[in-house]
Amino acid sequence: MFEEQDDYQLRYIYHTNHHNNAYLIELNLDKYNDLFNSWDGSELDRKELDPELSQFLERASYELPIKEKVELCFYLPEGKKNKKMEADSKATIKNNFRMNLFFINQNLKNNNKKIATYILMGILFLLTAYLIPESKDLSLLISLLMEGLFVGGWVFLWEAFSIFFFGSRELKDKKKRYFRYLESEIFFKYTD
């Protein structure tokens, strides 16, 4: 029941395409270049999305259920209609999503390397601490070293656990959201 209520409220906030029930993320533009970072001097196919647009799209992706389809709809004045710019803009937007996915994948690989390193270090610290023979005659320095190895080992294992369950999970969720945008339709509509 709550999901139906949430769905109804979202459909009040976001329009939907009645043909496929996809949520429409709609934006008004004055010109095609409004889509892209004005500081980016590279060619159109390499341009970065406007930071405010990126933020808006990221926020919208978290507002809408991940299982639902989305479509991007950009409104421009009729006088600005240019089929080549429209096609190039669509391709550039998709390239931005691909680029974001690439960087997310890089971060996930780095996280996996960190996890493996932290697990290895944690196990080494704990094994070293366990292999130090227990004796009541141990000096204070050896005793402190042993305790430090135990604490360090558990801290390394906790960090690996934290990255695996929290850091990587966030990145995987973000990856799904960008992949959904990559799969989405992009429309340009022109108004008087």
UniProtKB/TrEMBL annotation:
Domain of life (superkingdom): Bacteria
Keyword terms of this UniProt record: Membrane, Transmembrane, Transmembrane helix
Transmembrane stretches, start-end: 115-132, 138-167
Protein name: Uncharacterized protein
Naturally occurring in which organism (per UniProt): Halanaerobium saccharolyticum subsp. saccharolyticum DSM 6643
